[in-house]
Specification:
Layout: E1 2-6, E2 12-20, E3 23-31, E4 43-47, E5 55-57, E6 63-67, E7 77-85, E8 95-98, E9 102-103, E10 110-111, E11 122-131, E12 143-147, E13 159-161, H1 173-177, E14 180-188, E15 192-202, E16 204-209, E17 212-213, E18 230-237, E19 245-254, H2 256-259, E20 275-284, E21 289-293, E22 299-301, E23 306-310, E24 314-318, E25 337-338, E26 340-342, E27 349-352, E28 358-365, E29 368-373, E30 376-395, E31 401-406, E32 409-410, E33 413-414, E34 425-429, E35 434-438, E36 445-453, E37 466-473, E38 482-483, H3 486-502, E39 503-504, E40 506-507, H4 520-533, H5 537-550, H6 577-589, H7 593-611, E41 613-614, E42 617-618, H8 645-667, H9 670-691, H10 705-713, H11 719-735, H12 746-756, H13 760-767, H14 775-780, E43 793-794, E44 798-799, H15 816-823, E45 826-828, E46 835-838, E47 848-855, E48 858-867, E49 870-877, E50 882-885, E51 896-897, E52 900-901, E53 914-921
Parallel strand pairs: 5-12, 18-27, 24-34, 46-50
Antiparallel strand pairs: 1-2, 2-3, 4-6, 6-10, 7-8, 7-9, 7-11, 11-12, 13-26, 14-19, 14-22, 15-18, 15-20, 16-17, 16-19, 20-21, 22-25, 23-24, 28-37, 29-30, 30-35, 30-36, 30-37, 31-34, 31-36, 32-33, 38-47, 39-40, 41-42, 43-44, 45-46, 47-48, 48-49, 49-53, 51-52, 51-53
Helix pairs in contact: 4-6, 4-15, 5-6, 5-7, 6-7, 7-8, 8-9, 10-11, 10-12
Length: 930
């Protein structure tokens, strides 16, 4: 329908109104000019870190972002106006906030200026803009935002669980490891307008209403946070699942990360009782409300089909215990027990989840099946993935089916030793003969192969028996890099699969063995490439909140977040994630909120660094250049590499100081800058004089590539000394036949330093190496993800006997940053890509490359093609930005842009939004040959 309103400003407004999820939305246009004269409306409207029309949002003062329409006549925004109201009608009658016309080119992270939102509050918002010529756009489509429960005081429900799991009953590990089933019946007597389910768990939950799953694709909710500090809550629109009359709210509940073990800490396995907290709020058409909360009236049972659930060890499912209709009405729960209740503690904050939960995102069919022995079938999914399988298998009554998993075959044999103590095994016990349809619920694993035994042996195994259900935190995968080289494309694909598998509510190190922790060192090297490949700003921002909550009073940052008592020291290069990640995110987004939120943590980490200084060096513990190939050291010490540990710690202290200075300058904290600069200057001198002799060789320890990469990447030497250090680095590369000799810390710095110093020929050489150690070495040995070690596995010999062989580790996937910043040449000249540098690097190994990156302003796209020395480049610059193209490899006299000869550099600078076609000839001496 169409409604008309009149404003005091006498602007004509037309709104197309619709009801979505209980929220009135409208698409409106207004202004003094006619529609024909107006510019297209802004698009891609989002709040916070990329949320569109969120329900259960977490910020009481949200940030608004949008993009200019690509088909508008104007190139730039000169002003904007944001309106926020309680409803679509209110946008033209009574707003909650009207920014008025604000002269600004800013299109992202604009903070709401009205009174802070309350829990449950619903609002709508829209924006219009003016271009550089003063032409006004149409109003955007109206977007909605709805807050979750922001305070513990908003909860009327209580924590509930099965009485046998109370610690006062001294429950066994088996009792605590057995999932609980909880339900309540209630009546709704009036017509329902909207309904919201607010829910969380100490553990993992799966909610149902009237026999239907509330969120079929959501898994392992609510996720993993520092449970003693904060537990995330989820909000679901369940309006369509309810009915007038009798209803049932139910949930299954398991221990997950809360009460199950973490890593190999078997003594902590299933020692805490899982608990559920739920609050269903129903609003009726007459305006009245009804709240159904978790309390002592709920019923509980542990006699359901899942009789064991463990994140690391798998599930046991007994078909005879299936309870038909248990989550629906007309179910007899008379033999169920009354739930026990526990109060909500004010010391543990309940807060809306601030990034999307883990979800099933795709299904992968098996590509091959074989029987290595009688009664055993092995299925190959063709891809090392993370999630669970869906099994549709023939079974015989009372004959147990055992399902095991593996990442790779070891010399042709099914192999699980690299899972270490994680059993990663499911058991299904059928009660009837026929076809069993089973999908594990409260566990996950990393695997490519599935082994099934105990099935009906009279049936021939078929590929259709097994389908892999891929799970990861639900964000958009945007990876677009593609080239003319099949192995490079495979490497790029492998890196994306590593991202999928390890972004599992937190940034894991690996998803399969008895570890699966949020290691900070792995995270800091991969943050920037992950942003180029996926919409993960919200994911990183949420994890950083957990890092802040785990920081010690002395500034110490644990090795992994969330922290459990396992390895209790801090490590340089790992803890420095708290300065590196916020700064890198700021560079890519332009959102200073990420710096503001984490600045105190950054300074606290500097204090901890300072506490580790002794005798002109940092003595902080470090994992070193983890898993550097060909170490001189032997045994377990070899894992930490050969680079001087104190050098690593001192250099990272200086780097963190510089990044914190950068943050202080952005935030305007002038009082902090001078003392930090003074400390940094002193540290630079210490690095030069304490660790290097007059010839700039290491005074102690082994001369390594990383020993020169650290001061070069972190700018710890003056220019003249840098030249000497770089020459030594090149010598080290030459000694290794231009192979890398770097681990987790050194590898990203190696690519960075060579690229920044104009030696992209060496980057290409390293990237396209095929022998060990190299990225293509894994590709040549059948990798479908990236590995923990450079030589974790070979097709001939199977798994490396050294141990610690995860075949899904993302740290070495950091090279993908070069795909976007080097090969395509996309880099921010200003934070958030307001100004963009396009400086692609061409090498003989590639004839073509293309890709794009979705900046806060829109997509910047680059593609190039080389035929001999002739290069053709296409660049798309998004609205509200400008770009500079740098092509030092091409002969200036040969350059043409959109058909016009380039006669001076200005033609390639300050480029307006649009698409540019550049052609030219490579200079022979600049050709990046192998």
């Amino acid at each position: 329908m169409t409604l008309s309103f009149t404003r005091a400003a006498a602007l004509a407004v037309a709104c197309s109104v619709s009801l979505v999820g209980g929220t009135l939305l409208a698409s409106c246009s207004s202004g003094g000019a006619s529609k024909a004269d107006q510019q297209p409306a802004p698009v891609v409207l989002e709040v916070g870190e990329g949320f569109s029309n969120p329900i259960g949002y977490y910020e009481s003062t949200p940030r608004f972002s949008w993009q200019l329409a690509s088909d508008g006549a104007g190139h730039y925004q000169s002003a904007y106006q944001i309106q926020v109201a309680a409803s679509a009608e209110g946008l033209d009658r009574e707003t909650l906030w009207d920014s008025g016309k604000v002269v600004s080119a800013q299109t992202s992270w604009i903070r709401y200026g009205g009174a802070p939102f309350d829990s449950r509050q619903q609002a709508v918002w829209r924006v219009r803009t003016w271009d550089e010529n003063g032409q006004m756009s149409r109003w955007s489509e109206v977007q909605s935002i709805e807050l979750g429960l922001l305070s513990n005081d908003d909860w009327q429900g209580q924590w509930i669980g099965h009485p046998d799991t109370e610690l006062s009953q001294q429950p066994s590990v088996q009792v605590l490891a057995t999932p609980q089933y909880l339900r309540t019946e209630f009546a709704l007597e009036s017509a329902i307008k909207k309904a919201r389910l607010y829910i969380t768990a100490k553990g993992l939950f799966k909610p149902f209403i009237n026999g239907q799953q509330v969120a079929p694709d959501d898994v392992m909710t609510p996720g993993w946070t520092p449970y003693d500090e904060r537990i995330e809550t989820l909000t679901y629109d369940v309006t369509s699942l309810l009915k007038t009359g009798d209803n049932v709210l139910a949930a299954s509940l398991a221990g997950g990360w809360y009460s199950g073990r973490v890593a190999d800490l078997m003594a902590l396995d299933h020692q805490l009782p899982p608990r559920l907290l739920a609050q269903l709020e129903v609003t009726f058409s007459n305006g009245e409300r009804q709240i159904i909360g978790s309390d002592a009236s709920w019923k509980a049972s542990q006699q359901g089909p899942i009789q064991f659930a463990s994140t690391y060890d798998g599930e046991r499912y007994e078909q005879r215990l299936e309870m038909a209709g248990w989550s629906d009405s007309n179910f007899d729960d008379s033999d169920w027990q009354q739930a026990v209740v526990e109060p909500i503690l004010p010391t543990i904050k309940l807060a809306p989840k601030r990034h999307a939960p883990i979800r099933i995102t795709q299904a992968i069919p098996a590509i091959e099946v074989w029987q290595p022995s009688e009664g055993v079938a092995v299925f190959d999914l063709g891809q090392n993935m993370v999630g669970v399988p869906r099994l549709q298998i023939p079974v015989r009554a009372d004959q147990q089916v055992t399902i095991r998993y593996a990442e790779a075959l070891h010399k042709g044999e099914f192999y699980t030793d690299n899972y270490r103590s994680a059993k990663v095994t499911d058991h299904y016990i059928p009660s009837v003969t026929g076809t069993a349809d089973y999908t594990p619920t409260f566990t996950y694993r990393g695997f490519r192969y599935v082994e099934i035994s105990g099935f009906d042996a009279s049936q021939k195994p078929s590929q259709e028996w097994v389908t892999g259900l891929v799970q990861h935190s639900d964000f958009e995968i945007r990876a677009s890099f593609e080239s003319s080289h099949s192995k490079l494309n495979k490497l790029a694909d492998n890196i994306v699969w590593g991202l999928r598998g390890n972004f599992y509510d937190i940034p894991l190190d690996c998803p399969q063995r008895d570890e699966r922790l949020g290691w900070t060192g792995d995270a800091q090297v991969f943050v920037t490439p992950s942003m180029y490949m996926a919409d993960v700003y919200g994911f990183w921002s949420a994890w950083l909140q957990s890092v802040r909550e785990e920081q010690g009073d002395d500034g110490k940052i644990p090795l992994y977040i969330p922290f459990v008592e396992w390895i209790n020291f801090a490590s340089s290069g790992w803890g420095d994630a708290v300065t590196i990640i916020p700064w890198q995110l700021y560079q890519l987004t332009g959102d200073d909120t990420i710096l503001r939120d984490n600045y105190a943590m950054m300074k606290g980490w500097l204090d901890y660094h300072q506490s580790q200084m002794k005798d002109d060096r940092s003595t902080m513990m470090t994992f070193g250049d983890w898993l550097q190939p060909y170490p001189v050291a032997e045994g377990k010490k070899a894992n930490r590499g050969d680079t001087e540990f104190d050098l690593i710690s001192t250099a990272f202290y200086a780097h963190s100081l510089q990044l914190t200075i950068n943050a202080a300058e952005v935030l305007g904290y002038q009082q902090d800058i001078a003392p930090m600069k003074q400390t940094l200057s002193k540290l630079k001198g210490l690095v030069r004089n304490t660790f290097y002799d007059q010839e700039l060789k290491p005074k102690t320890g082994v001369e390594t590539q990383t020993s020169y990469l650290l001061p070069l990447a972190f700018d710890l030497f003056n220019p003249a000394v840098q030249e000497v250090a770089f020459a030594h680095l090149l010598e080290q590369l030459a000694k290794a036949d231009n192979h890398l000799r770097t681990g987790f810390l050194g590898t990203p710095l190696l690519i960075q330093v060579l690229h920044e110093r104009g030696r992209d020929d060496l980057v290409y050489d390293l990237l396209f190496k095929e022998s060990y150690p190299s990225w293509f070495y894994s590709v040549n040995n059948g990798a479908t993800t990236t590995w923990e070690r450079w030589n974790s596995y070979t097709l001939k010999d199977g798994f490396n006997p050294q141990g610690m062989n995860s075949l899904n580790h993302y740290a070495y996937g950091t090279v993908s940053r070069y795909f976007y910043e080097g090969i395509l040449g996309i880099q921010p000249l200003q934070p958030g890509f307001k100004e963009i540098l396009i400086a692609p690097k061409f090498g003989q190994q590639l004839d073509q490359a293309s890709g794009d990156y979705q900046t806060p302003h829109g997509d910047v796209a680059v593609s190039w093609q080389r035929t001999g020395r002739a290069v053709e480049l296409s660049v798309t610059v998004p609205k509200n930005t400008q770009a500079t193209i740098e092509l030092p490899q091409l002969q200036r006299t040969s350059l043409q842009v959109n058909g016009e000869a380039v006669v001076n550099e200005n033609q390639l600078q300050g480029l307006k939004p649009g698409t540019y076609r550049v052609v030219g000839q490579l200079q022979p001496e600049q050709f990046l040959s192998n």
